[in-house]
Design goal:
Elements: H1 2-26, H2 42-57, H3 60-68, H4 73-81, H5 85-97, H6 106-125
Helix pairs in contact: 2-4, 2-5
Length: 133
């Protein structure tokens, strides 16, 4: 008998929720669909892709690798400007996936400092002491 009393609240909750879902399910919403026009036109897309590839080619590491392979930055820029739309867009998409290494070591130093502070904070929260001798 006590188990029935204990589960009575569950049964009442289940009935209330099923009534609520039935009421919400009976309301009908309006679904509308349509074609959304792209705001980026062909010329704008090409200009954006060229700008993205140009900024990638202006990095010190990329420019140095081009010179190491015997390609001047001017030749690379001329080749990018002569590419077709699909090739240019694919190259711009690949530059997004390229490792975003920095030209200086400042990012690595900041990352290591944040990591060190995080480790010290965790040790402090665990009431551990760091002793440097």
């Amino acid at each position: 008998m006590t188990s029935i009393r204990r589960t009575g609240w569950f049964l009442a909750l289940a009935v209330a929720l099923s009534c609520w879902m039935g009421a919400l399910g009976s309301l009908r919403g309006v679904a509308e669909a349509g074609v959304i026009a792209s705001r980026v036109e062909g010329a704008d897309l090409r200009a954006a892709d060229i700008a993205k590839v140009q900024t990638f080619l202006e990095r010190k590491i990329v420019a140095q690798k081009l010179v190491d392979y015997g390609v001047s930055p001017e030749e690379a820029t001329a080749k990018v400007l002569s590419m077709e739309g699909k090739e240019l867009h694919r190259l711009a998409a690949l530059t997004d996936r390229a490792a975003s290494g920095s030209d200086s070591g400042a990012d690595a130093v900041v990352g290591l400092a944040v990591l060190l502070l995080l480790i010290l904070l965790i040790l402090w929260l665990m009431n551990k002491k760091v002793v440097i001798r």
